[in-house]
Amino acid sequence: xxxxxxxxxxNVLVLMLGTVIRQLSLFITFPYFSLYIRALGGSNVVxxxxxxxxxxxxxxxxxxxxxxxxxxxxxxxxxAMGYLNAALYLLYMLAPDWRFLAAATLxxxxxxxxxxxxxxxxxxxxxxxxxxxxxAAITAIPGFVGILSPFIGGYLITVYGVERAMRLLxxxxxxxxxxxxxxxxxxxxxxxxxxxxxxxGLTSVIRGSYSGLWETLRWMPRSLRVYGLVLVLGLFFxxxxxxxxxxxxxxxxxxxxxxxxxxLLVANLVQVFLSLPAGALIDRYDKxxxxxxxxxxxxxxxxxxxxxxxxxxTLLVFVPLAVANxxxxxxxxxxxxxxxxxxxxGRTMAALGRGMISVNYRGGGGGGPGMGxxxxxxxxxxxxxxxxxxxxGPSIPWLLLGGALALSALLSVLFIETPKQER
Length: 423
Hints:
By secondary structure, this protein is mainly α. It has helices at 2-7, 10-23, 26-29, 33-39, 44-58, 62-71, 75-94, 98-109, 114-124, 131-145, 149-160, 162-187, 202-219, 222-241, 245-251, 257-284, 287-304, 311-339, 345-352, 373-392, 396-415. Helix 6 (62-71) crosses helix 9 (114-124), helix 7 crosses helix 9 (114-124) and helix 13 packs across helix 19. It is globular.
């Protein structure tokens, strides 16, 4: 317990509290965003196209965001983007049809400056020997608070209908996001230190951001490049499936929003209660091997999902997926932090994100701290073709995702070396 008290303080505590607040607002909307697009006139293909717009816009921002995080500091960027996002969610709330959602999603992709900054700030604030527990805590504790979030969303959609419920949830998100930005302004502390004279002008930073990205790619050792390939596989095939879990559940299995929310509630419970013990185990054992085992564990239930056919069958799929995610997320984040020295974290995490790997059955996606410049293109392609693949054969996306998870486990075992622990 002493080690956990050491983890949950300062910047880590503030960032975690922000995620807790998002669990009770924005995160409730994620599983049902595809249904909101359809309620506003979009098709299955449009669902993928709208989801593709955020990473497409972010692709051009991440190199600049990483350079700014390493030159100007983390906290200023996090706070400024927080207030801008609060204003943006008004557009989600008021959208009269799916085209306005598309515009909002595109703008959302232009506001990803905070993600490399927050990823670097979190890694900076955690010593290596506590990173497994740190990444587990920042996942598990908000997850515990948000256990009922998908259930609440499903209940509201069942009672009020998709459109009315989602507008209400986005109204709450506007207020919550502004509150988080104010909290970050008051309590986050900068971790980036620079020698005198290292500060660059804004124009110089932006001009050098892309050259800095290519320099970062050339610097990457083989293990980190293979890890980048694992991240690419995960993001691409999660993009094929992510928006369509709830579509498949409602259209082909016949579940209501309330039933889908109940499934996510059970999965959240399992993942939350396992995440902290998982984090402690990750700090004691090899992070790379733990990640590979979690990838293997997730493969079979993903392959089984299109064939479960009932509420109970889907529940039996979601439980092992939640177990796998409980280990996968903190192991992947801690492994990424160990691989990258502090002075390179802004640019490297702008390229590869925070190193977040999971099976995304909750929906959402296409952004967040798990995203980076290198990951945006495969994510965009995955979203754009996902609707066509789903319409061709509803089971195909999950069969492809299962194969990618198995390949990722193999790559992790054979080609990624366990890094030395770095501050």
